[in-house]
C-alpha cells in the first residue's frame, strides 16, 4: 500500500508541528530551570585571594594552616618570614579556624569546588587541636596540646561553625557529630549564677565573642538535627548577651563583663556582626520579630560606628571578615541597600588599596602590607571572607552555611 502525495504532505506537516511543539516544551523547560550563578569579576578576585592564602599558608604535608608564610614561599611579601622565630609553625586555632572559614566561603562560589579537598583536609585535621583527655573534651588554642590545656569557648565556637560548614558542603555526618561534641563542651562554659558563657576555662570574664557565635552554632545544630535543646540554648545565650552586653539605645555590642560586673565597652566589628548573625538565624528559626529588629539595629550601628569617612571598615581586617559573613545573613532577609554598598565598597578598597602583588592583604586597609615582614594568616582571612561575601551577593548567593 502506497501513500499518495497528499498523504506525504500531511505527514510532513504533522512532523513540523511535532517539532515545533518539542521546541516550545524545551524552551519552557529552560525557562523553568534555575539560572546558574553568574561568574563575575568579584568571584575571580575571591578565587585569586583564596588561592594566595592557600599557597602561602597551607602545609600540604600535614594538611594544616601555618601561622606565618611557610619557608618555601618566596617573594617580597614573605621576605620577613625567615626572621620570625618559627616560620611555618602551625597556626593557633583562632587563625586556623578563620582560615578554614575563608576557604569555605570561597569554595561555595561558582567554580569553587576545587577548594573542597583542602576544606576537607583542614576540617579533618582540626583533631590536632582536640584535647581528648579533658573531662569534657574540646579544642585547645595550640597545636598538639597537652591534656588539660586551658581552652577558649570562642575558639571552639569558630571551629564548630567550620564543622557545620564542612557538613553542609559535603554531607559527611562525621562533621555534624563533631560539631555536637563541640557544643557539649560549650555547655560547660555557662555561668550557672549570672548566666552567659565564659571566655575560657578560667571562668573570670564573659565575652560577647564567647556567646553570640555559640548561639549561631546552636541554631545551625537545631536546623540540622531538629533537637529543640539547641534552640533553647541559642535563645538563652542570646537573651543574656542582649541584657548584659548590648546598649539598648543604639544596639552597640560591648566587649565583655568581668567578675565584678564591670563592662568593657571596647567596640569591635566582629562583636557587632556575630550578634547580627545570631539574631537573624534565630528569626529564621522562630519567626519572632524582635530578633530581626535587634539585627537591624546592631547592623545600623556597625555600619555607622565601624566605618571611616572614606567608607573603609575600621581595623583589624580579620574582624571585618566575620562582620561581612554575618551582615550577608541579614541581607538575605532584608535586601538592605546599605549592607550591599558597604560590602561592595570594602571589597573594592581591600582589592585596590590593601593588596600586595601576591594577593596578600594588610590588616589596616589604608595601604598595602609592608614588604619586609611576614604576614600572619589571621590578617588574610578578613579580606578573603569579605571578598567572598561580595562575590556571593553579585553572583547569586551562597549555597552552604547560610540561610
Topology of this structure?
Layout: H1 5-32, H2 41-57, E1 58-59, E2 64-65, H3 93-107, H4 116-124, E3 130-131, E4 138-139, H5 153-170, H6 173-187, E5 206-207, H7 212-225, H8 228-245, E6 256-257, E7 263-264, H9 269-286, H10 289-305, H11 317-334, H12 337-353, H13 377-395
Antiparallel strand pairs: 1-2, 3-4, 5-6, 6-7
Helix pairs in contact: 2-3, 2-13, 3-4, 3-5, 3-13, 4-5, 5-6, 5-7, 6-7, 7-8, 7-9, 8-9, 9-10, 9-11, 11-12, 11-13, 12-13
Give the amount of beta strand, in percent. under 5%
Sum up the overall morphology in one term: globular
Helix content: 55-70%
Computed structural class: mainly alpha
Count of runs of 4 or more consecutive helical residues: 13
Give the strand line-up of the largest sheet: 5-6-7
Gyration radius, rounded: 24 Å
Number of strands: 7
Question: Secondary-structure element order, as H and E?
Answer: HHEEHHEEHHEHHEEHHHHH
Which residues form runs of ≥5 with pLDDT under 50?
A: 74-83
What is the fold-level CATH name, i.e. the topology?
Glycosyltransferase
For the sheet with most strands, the description reads: 3 strands, antiparallel
- Look at the structure and give the CATH class: Mainly Alpha
Under the CATH scheme, which architecture would be assigned?
Alpha/alpha barrel
Distance between the termini: 66 Å
| Integer count of domains | 1
Chain-averaged pLDDT: 89
Amino acid at each position: 500500500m502506497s501513500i499518495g502525495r497528499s498523504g506525504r504532505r500531511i505527514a510532513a506537516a504533522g512532523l513540523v508541528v511535532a517539532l515545533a511543539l518539542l521546541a516550545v516544551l524545551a524552551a519552557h523547560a529552560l525557562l523553568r530551570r534555575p539560572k546558574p550563578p553568574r561568574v563575575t569579576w568579584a568571584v575571580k578576585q575571591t578565587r585569586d585571594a583564596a588561592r594566595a592564602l592557600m599557597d602561602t599558608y597551607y602545609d600540604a604535608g600535614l594538611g594544616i594552616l601555618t601561622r606565618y608564610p611557610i619557608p618555601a614561599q618566596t617573594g617580597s611579601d614573605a621576605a620577613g618570614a625567615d626572621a620570625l622565630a618559627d616560620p611555618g609553625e602551625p597556626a593557633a586555632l583562632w587563625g586556623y579556624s578563620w582560615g578554614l572559614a575563608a576557604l569555605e566561603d570561597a569554595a561555595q562560589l561558582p567554580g569553587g569546588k576545587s577548594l573542597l579537598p583542602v576544606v576537607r583536609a583542614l576540617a579533618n585535621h582540626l583533631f590536632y587541636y582536640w584535647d581528648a583527655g579533658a573531662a569534657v573534651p574540646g579544642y585547645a588554642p595550640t597545636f598538639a596540646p597537652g591534656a588539660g590545656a586551658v581552652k577558649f569557648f570562642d575558639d571552639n565556637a569558630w571551629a564548630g561553625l567550620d564543622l557545620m560548614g564542612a557538613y553542609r558542603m559535603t554531607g559527611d555526618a562525621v562533621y555534624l557529630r563533631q560539631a555536637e561534641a563541640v557544643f557539649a563542651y560549650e555547655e560547660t562554659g555557662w555561668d550557672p549564677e549570672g548566666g552567659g558563657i565564659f571566655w575560657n576555662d578560667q571562668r573570670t570574664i564573659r565575652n560577647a565573642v564567647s556567646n553570640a557565635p555559640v548561639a549561631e552554632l546552636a541554631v545551625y545544630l537545631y536546623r540540622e538535627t531538629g533537637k529543640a535543646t539547641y534552640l533553647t540554648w541559642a535563645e538563652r545565650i542570646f537573651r543574656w548577651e542582649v541584657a548584659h552586653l548590648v546598649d539598648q539605645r543604639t544596639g552597640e555590642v560591648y566587649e565583655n563583663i568581668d567578675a565584678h560586673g564591670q563592662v568593657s565597652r571596647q567596640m569591635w566589628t566582629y562583636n557587632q556582626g556575630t550578634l547580627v548573625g545570631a539574631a537573624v538565624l534565630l528569626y529564621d528559626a522562630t519567626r519572632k520579630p524582635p530578633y530581626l529588629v535587634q539585627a537591624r539595629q546592631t547592623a545600623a550601628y556597625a555600619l555607622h560606628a565601624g566605618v571611616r569617612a572614606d567608607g573603609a571598615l575600621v581595623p583589624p581586617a580579620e574582624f571585618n571578615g566575620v562582620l561581612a559573613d554575618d551582615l550577608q545573613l541579614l541581607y538575605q532577609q532584608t535586601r538592605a541597600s546599605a549592607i550591599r554598598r558597604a560590602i561592595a565598597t570594602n571589597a573594592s578598597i581591600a582589592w585596590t588599596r590593601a593588596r600586595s602583588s601576591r594577593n596578600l592583604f594588610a590588616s589596616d586597609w589604608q595601604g598595602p602590607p609592608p614588604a619586609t615582614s611576614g604576614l600572619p594568616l589571621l590578617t588574610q582571612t578578613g579580606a578573603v571572607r569579605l571578598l567572598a561575601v561580595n562575590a556571593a551577593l553579585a553572583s547569586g548567593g551562597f549555597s552552604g552555611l547560610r540561610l
